[in-house]
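Input:
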Amino acid sequence: MMTLVFEQALNGVQLGVLLFLLAAGLTLVFGIMNFVNLAHGSLYMVGAYFAATFIPWSGSFIVGALLALAATAAVGMALEVLIFRRLYHRDHMDQVLATFGLILFFNELVLMVWGPAGLSIAVPSWLVGQVNIIPGVPYPAYRLAVLVTGLAAAAFLYVLVSRTRTGMRIRAGASDQQMAQALGVDIKLLFTGIVGLGAALAALAGLLAAPLRSVYAGMGEDILVLAFVVVVIGGIGSIRGAFVAALGVGLIDTVGRAFLPRVLDALLSDQIADAVAPALSTTLIYLTMVVVLAIRPRGLFPAPGQ
Amino acid sequence: MTPTTPASRWAIALLIALAAAPVFSALAGQTFYVFLLSKMMILALAGVSLNWILGYGNMPSFGHAGFLGIGAYSVAIMSMRAAEAQGGWLATAFVQLPIATLAAAIAAIIIGAVSLRTRGVYFIMITLAFGQMLFSLGVALEPLGGDDGMTLPMYSTLGPADLSSGPVLYYVVLGLLVLALAGSHRLMQSPFGAVIRGAKSNETRLEALGVPTYRYRLAAFALAGAVCGLAGALLANQGGYVSPALAAWTHSAELVVIVLLGGAGTLFGPLFGALAVVGLEEILSQLTEHWRIIFGPILILVVLANRGGISGLFRARTNV
Amino acid sequence: MSSPALEIIGLHKQFGGVAANDGIDLILETGEIHALIGPNGSGKTTLINQIMGILTPNSGEIHVFGQNVAHRPIHTRSKMGVGRSWQIPSVFPDLTVAENVAFGVRAALGLSAGWWTKALTEDVTDRVDKLLGQAGLRQVMDAPAGDLSHADQRKLDVAIALSSDPILVLLDEPLAGLGADETTHMLTYIRKIRANSTPGPKRTIVLIEHDMDAVFALSDRISVLVEGKIVATGTPQEIGQNPIVQHAYLGEA
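Output:
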């Protein structure tokens, strides 16, 4: 039983770091440019498709993954220059409408280029198998690698935003665009860069998830909603909030699905438990979000001035 | 908008054309168009309801399709019971449609009561989450087909006929749509509508005048949910089928597209929007199966042009 | 003895590390025009935001005609007779001028906003007409408020504040951005406001204003705020001669 709890907790953290990679880009773009990007899930999908193409082509998981990150960042930056920057000062619903148009476009494009069948990415040979994290508790090596990579990316982002000159510019851009401009920050370039960074993080999430799930058109929409839940629970614009909320949502979702039916079985009659459990465990994270927002309408870590 | 603007003249001409359409399509032997226009008008009805909160009231709900789902599943459940009993009172539209509407209204009161505590992007996101919650509930409802949904065992009956008949459904939908548009006009000119429109730009000021805005906004949210539930009940009969996809967030996004494309906060905007969305889909999908690759960029261009939707185009022309 | 129109006791409001209101005590008698002056950022608007209920104080009490309102919602305070105008004219731009003042009129008549009646019924239009006449806006009553000139929006802003028939009126810089003629008109208007409460006694007015000539001409008493504290209260004459005030505020002007 302990082993199972431990394994599910690790799965939860692993889902959490994937969600964080997606949510980080969303919350940066929300917080700094005040822009709602529904097409962020499309970048997740495009990243996975690029990886599924580049990895076999280059023969190396690492090389293919890096190429996919660069290519997706380029797509993101192109979108910023062509479309997003014209919408920063517009109503949120206009942003939603335009980026929904992008979702339709990308889903269809992917179908036309790669076909309707979907793709898969194989786990790299050096990560096949299990490792013993603590003696007697085996865990798939690839899942562990996802977890470590995700945490490393989170650490990188933390250092970038809070400890470097670039991060200072990002924070200046977030708190006061005119001030940042007066300090000599090229706001246009900075914004393009932020979207590019967010796109690369989304692509990383997409390609890391690909060997565990599969690569298909529309894969971005399912996870995008979870990423939005994370951003909102964490507080829009807060990287720290996104991290805490991502791990929380990952754990609640995974552990809830694994153990809620048992808990309900113990508490209620079989018949009721069987009827309630699936509905409750799939809606658990949405309930969590509703409760958090009912108590704190601007999330756990509301960014100042929002 | 008073009923004498160019947009409203076009809209009334359109409604008259819609009233005549089944006759012509029957003469031409093209009954498919009756089916398609029924769907268009049901989406317009859902759009009218979303327009009250999103357009007039600045409550940008992104989970409105959840109420379509509630309305549709209410009909599915009642029709299952009715099929087991081989008919009876539970099968009639006079029972099914009001109960579906009421179920959606109750859900909207609960969802609105929580969501309206938040503002702006948070409101968009919390309504999105509620919509997904309803979607997940649909997926979890194994007796109703779970993920795949289910075919209606029997349609809502209406006297000797039932709503499986194209023309019967068509005129029921048209009648309800006209009622909803007339109601929309009356509602927005009433003191209640003034509060909803006023709260859009300046809620604090309304409060400072002694108006408890939360209650009014919640009432508007509930009314919008109820009418969307009615649209859902009709949609179940139109397709003869219900599935969780009705409540999916992408479907909510489609309703938002209908309202914004038609012109948010204008009386006939949702009608134009629904016609444009269903029409474009039909025309483009005859050009290519990958019609979305054209439709997506059209949406983007509409936003970038920023003319306040189709109703805005009429306005722009009269100003010149 | 009847309660004062407004009594504020030990009011504190903190924004992050800054005390915007730092222990405010203030008593206003019924019918008084009481001006709040002080440099920008001294906490004047923060104070009236708390009286109206838009901000909640960290500590302290606010009594309106003897009732502590510090934690009541905004709309309840309006029902108790508090009304305010805004520093930046705060109108409903998409609605007509008449609709703008109808909200408060209806609320004051105890009417809730029905689903199915017409917005401007007869009992409402009478009052709307009177309010707009008093403000000099009757000719534009059917225009969208967003189309009005700045001066007319300013008048409308004050007319909206009066529409709910308040007995304690908070005016936030009603003269800002007005020309000389418009200022004269507004001064007359404000004097009328005090006299004109429909039932009962004179209205009590809290006036925030930077135009010192207007302040000294209109006010019965003046309080000076500096960094969230009231440093002096008195008649215009007393305030004009007060050395602390001259040093802290008027000296700079």
